[in-house]
Write a sequence for this structure.
């Protein structure tokens, strides 16, 4: 999920929710002689920008749509891929055909069966040329998708996603053995025919859902989610989830301590002392984030269309030192575009070597000794803490004049007119190496904002994706090309922290930025 730094936070929820009152959690009477087990949970989250999974493109929105609309696969807290609406799947030997077999008992919350046609219709909405998903790049390797998004084809049936004998069959132009992992993204949640076939908008409350919950009510301060009794895995143990968007200006720690919420993310500086607090310490949890902050170059115009210029910058900066000095607690220097936590990731470092002498030689070979003839070079920092250190190293070692700019809308800047250098954050859509490589940097990817193109890199990604499971080590050749050509430089990885009430089971994020509420339960 693409995001700038700091992470994007959508400002408003659907207007239809503003006039609806927030209802109280349902109380369940205890059995005689037994203490009651709670059936409600209160959590804090930022408001979503939409309720439509095909339109979501940020973590906050995914955290809500993932509860409403179930994908075919899902990752558990250990990042193991599990069946969801699909009971199983098959990948052809060449990685170009994937078949998903649906659960025969899967139903929407109104009791109607979930069919292969519902999956196909839901997924085709992601590549609707009139309103493509922000994450449509995840399907670019599917046959016919590039032509449909570009307007060269108006026939949806030309896209390689079809219902065949009750199964969903996907054909790809390039190997895609990681497709079962890709479709675990909340964007691939299955919506009912009223949405994909009849083109009705998703209502603000009482949606027909395929996931564990629907929104019963809400307003600008939060929403109440009610369990779906027809959920394929059985009715969720937690009947009511209150998602609060507003905690009245209090700190997250205070809101947790006074019982306003049962689960809430907290700042790094709070986590540092809470770890030693006798009461709160046992309720502190690390929230893994499969996230990356990286530096990018715009490579289709001077000065960084010249590989020697990119290498000069890459070799003149002591990246690890700068990140270590400027990082917040829990943030650490990156060694690869693939963050730690991705299954199968090795320990090799793909960070450009710090070699100022060779950097100066590259700069001179590019015709700019000591920075001559270059003028100011813009670095769009988006509030990230590393820009000043980068600029200082480049001034000292190469004589470059780096002008740091902070744009309030970094996403729009990079999409329309990216500067020479820029920093950006990327959070995994699925826990696979290719989400940080091919999805982010392939020549035809919409997410490739630096416009770098390398046939050797594209080929290396294709070869890796032919391997069953496409483990991170299969992408070593692609990582080597990035280290040599330097279209990007990995900067930092990070974790977050949360407070979670004692006895609340399953309150674990899986690195994708959200918790599956259907997996929550209170200990007896």
């Amino acid at each position: 999920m693409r995001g700038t730094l700091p992470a994007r936070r959508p400002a408003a929820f659907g207007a239809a929710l503003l006039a609806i009152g927030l209802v109280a959690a349902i109380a369940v009477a205890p059995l005689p002689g037994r203490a009651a087990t709670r059936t409600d949970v209160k959590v804090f989250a930022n408001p979503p920008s939409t309720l439509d999974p095909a339109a979501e493109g940020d973590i906050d929105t995914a955290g809500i749509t993932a509860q409403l609309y179930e994908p075919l696969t899902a990752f558990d807290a250990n990042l193991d891929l599990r069946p969801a609406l699909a009971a199983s799947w098959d990948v052809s030997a060449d990685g170009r055909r994937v078949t998903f077999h649906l659960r025969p008992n899967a139903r929407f919350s109104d009791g109607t069966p979930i069919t292969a046609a519902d999956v196909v219709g839901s997924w085709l909405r992601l590549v609707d040329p009139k309103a493509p998903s922000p994450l449509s790049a995840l399907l670019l390797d599917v046959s016919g998708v590039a032509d449909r998004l570009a307007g060269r084809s108006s026939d949806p049936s030309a896209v390689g996603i079809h219902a065949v004998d009750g199964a969903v069959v996907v054909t790809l132009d390039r190997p895609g053995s990681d497709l079962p992992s890709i479709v675990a993204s909340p964007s691939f949640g299955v919506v009912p025919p009223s949405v994909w076939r009849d083109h009705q908008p998703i209502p603000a409350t009482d949606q027909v859902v395929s996931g564990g919950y629907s929104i019963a009510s809400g307003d600008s301060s939060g929403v109440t989610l009610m369990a779906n009794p027809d959920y394929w895995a059985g009715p969720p143990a937690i009947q009511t989830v209150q998602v609060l968007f507003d905690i009245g200006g209090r700190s997250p720690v205070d809101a947790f301590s006074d019982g306003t919420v049962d689960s809430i993310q907290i700042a790094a500086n709070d986590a540092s002392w809470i770890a030693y607090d006798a009461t709160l310490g046992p309720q502190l949890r690390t929230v893994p984030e499969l996230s990356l902050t990286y530096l990018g170059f715009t490579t289709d115009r001077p000065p960084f269309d010249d590989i020697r210029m990119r290498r000069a910058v890459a070799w003149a900066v002591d990246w690890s030192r700068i990140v270590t000095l400027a990082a917040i607690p829990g943030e650490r220097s990156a060694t690869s575009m693939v963050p730690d936590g991705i299954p199968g990731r090795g320990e090799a470092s793909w960070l450009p070597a710090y070699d100022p002498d060779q950097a100066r030689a590259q700069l001179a070979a590019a015709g700019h000794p000591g920075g001559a003839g270059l003028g100011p070079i813009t670095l769009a920092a988006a509030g990230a803490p590393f820009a000043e250190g980068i600029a200082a190293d480049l001034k000292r070692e190469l004589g470059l004049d780096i002008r740091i700019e902070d744009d309030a809308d970094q996403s729009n800047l990079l999409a329309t007119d990216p500067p020479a250098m820029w920093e950006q954050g990327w959070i995994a859509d699925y826990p696979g190496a290719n989400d940080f490589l091919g999805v982010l940097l392939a020549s035809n990817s919409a997410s490739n904002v630096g416009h770098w193109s390398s046939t050797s890199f594209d080929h290396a990604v294709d070869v890796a994706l032919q391997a069953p499971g496409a483990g991170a080590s299969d992408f070593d050749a692609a990582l080597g090309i990035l280290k040599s050509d330097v279209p990007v430089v990995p900067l930092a990885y990070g974790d977050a922290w949360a407070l979670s009430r004692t006895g609340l089971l399953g309150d674990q994020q899986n690195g994708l930025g959200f918790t599956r509420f259907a997996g929550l339960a209170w200990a007896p």
The chain is about 25% helix and 20% strand.
